[in-house]
Amino acid sequence: MSSPPLMPAQHQLPPDVSHPPAVRPLAKGTLGRRLVVRVAALVALVAVGLSAVVALAAYNIQVNQVDGRLDRAIARVTGPGPDSPSLGGQEIGTIIAEQTTGTIKGMILVDRASNYGVRPASLSVEALQQLSVLQLDSGERSTIRLVDYGLYRVTTHGDGTARVIVGIPLSQLGSAMTSLMVFEALLTGVIIAAAVLVARGVVVGSLAPLNRLAATATTVSNLPLESGEVEGIVRVPDADTDPVSEVGRVGLAFNHMLDNVEGALAARHASEVKLRQFVADASHELRNPLAAIRGYAELTRRERAELSPTMAHALGRIESESDRMSSLVEDLLLLARLDSGPALDLAPTDVTEIVLNATSDARAAGPDHRWSLSLPDEPVVALADRYRLHQVLANLLANARTHTPPGTRVETAVAVADGMVVITVTDDGPGVPADLQSSVFERFTRAEVSRVRIQGGSSTGLGLAIVAAVVAAHRGTASLDSHPGRTVFTVRIPVARPAS
User: Domain spanning 235-341 has what CATH number?
Assistant: First the structure.
């Protein structure tokens, strides 16, 4: 395995949970906006429908009134009296026409006169032609548009050989209907606008508890729950947990869920604290017996020439394994200390010097690799713990040496970017398997045994975990970019600010 990569080790600060994101109840795509639009559309549909019904009813009423006037007009024309049609009592604009076989003549009453009450005028030829072809039975009514005269309501009296045609103008009806339609359009617009305003207020007020519930959920989702030690998880206000309403039942269930989550987190944190304490205590207690074993094994070196080869080999293995066990115990103790709150000796530290020393040590430990450096001309100073930062570099370089074949080129580079010291360790080994890239940063994650090149043992899986913990304690980040032929570890820690 090429240098097992680091997953991002980002030191996350607790978010500001006292200011949840602003809620816009009528923003695009929100339930409130959809409800307001649908209510407005429904009101508009109802208003338009009612306007159409009112307009149709008003039109029919006025047409019936016109028909009554038409009946009275034709009664005056066809009633008992002299041969000529009677003009008395007729309205201005009334059309009277007489049709016999092959001929038709007619007049229109244009204005009033002192002798007759109204004065007739001859109809135009085009109007007479329209009336002559009119297919109406006696007493039947129809609405037609006469050339030069406009819209008329007409009826007939008589048989097929001789008949009288009388028409009443509908100009007043058209004006009245136009005024009515304009009034209804204005009224519909006012109703729709009022409906939008009322619906907006009702919807916003009705959805306010749901928005508060969403804000609470957002605040909880931003809490660093992965740490296990979380206090003061906010709850839905009591006003929004009324079991009578649907939203209140959701709020009540949400608070109950948060109670369970907080209890589970507290239990998990207590268990982790006990486990860390046990690991720290066990590691500390193991140091003394391991030191004794290692010391007694070293004492036997003086007399190993007198021992049998089998006994000398066994004592050598005891000494080697005690050394490896001591290293593992020290790593566990360090991780336990970092978990309980890292106490780092932070001070301005020359990163270039640490990289030089760590690479020199790696070159001595792995002469079969090709080691190189890329350093800036000027010293790079970071706010770091010198010993722990050296441990980070040593672990990364040892990781590259352990998990890449001989002849692999390993380059360590230092740079400064965006107020952070950037340290990269790059190798051209086979890369990290895709199935390990998401977990190599976890503790006790190891590559396949066949890929580990440690002779006489295997990796403990704690090296990269220590790197992650130390970098996070420095309020820095560590990340990985790996594919066959190129694996890059990137560590970022804050630059030391000059004293003011």
Answer: 1.10.287.130
